Amino acid sequence: MWIDSYKGIIEFAIDHEVRAYSLYMDLSKMMILREIRELCDDLAKEELDHKVKLEKESSKRCELVSPVNLSKYNILDSDVNNFKHRIEIFISAIKKEQASVELYMNLAEIVKNEDSRQLFLWLAQQESEHKRRFEYEYNNLLK
Questions:
Q1: With contact defined as beta carbons under 8 Å apart, do 100 and 51 qualify?
Q2: In this structure, what are the phi and psi dihedrals at residue 64, rounded to the nearest 5 degrees?
Q3: Which of 11, 50, 126, 140 has the most CB atoms in a 10 Å sphere around its CB?
Q4: Could you read off the pLDDT of 23-32 as tens digits, one per residue?
Q5: Phi first, then psi: what are they for 85, rounded to 5°?
Q6: Topology classification of domain 2-77+85-142
């Protein structure tokens, strides 16, 4: 899916954050361990914060250096019933967060507005931290 407008990439990013929020809220409900439930709840709240920042950005006008293919970032499986084992949840979350990092890094490269570029770099950093937190819990699970 190629997008050639700033409004289009913002709408895609908002949808991405909303789906991440839904996924983490669903995962929170299935988690037995309090620490993992709290992690999912915390990350869900952060995804909503990202959505709010992106919604504020949607009223801005910004040119793109080039169109962007966003198909590869559309990997979110929000149906938690598809996970047969707990380990699959962590692997999926780690992949989702890595895709989010790559999405925002890519968007930072194609926008001409410096404020928008800084927002995408900040979002990439946030998603990288989410990934790190899931990797930590994943490694604990393997012990």
A1: no
A2: -105, 145
A3: 50
A4: 899 888 888 8
A5: -130, 150
A6: Ferritin (1.20.1260)
Considering only 11-15, 49-53, 66-70, 123-127, which range has the smallest mean pLDDT? 66-70
Q: Give this prediction's pTM.
A: 0.90
| CA atoms lying within 13 Å on the CB side of residue 7 | 2
Structure tokens at 22: 């839904």
Interval 92-136: pLDDT, tens: 889 889 999 999 999 999 999 999 999 999 999 999 999 999 999
Question: Within 10 Å of residue 112's Cβ, how many Cβ atoms?
Answer: 11
**Three-state SS for 92?**
helix
Q: Show me where the domains of the chain are located.
A: 2-77+85-142
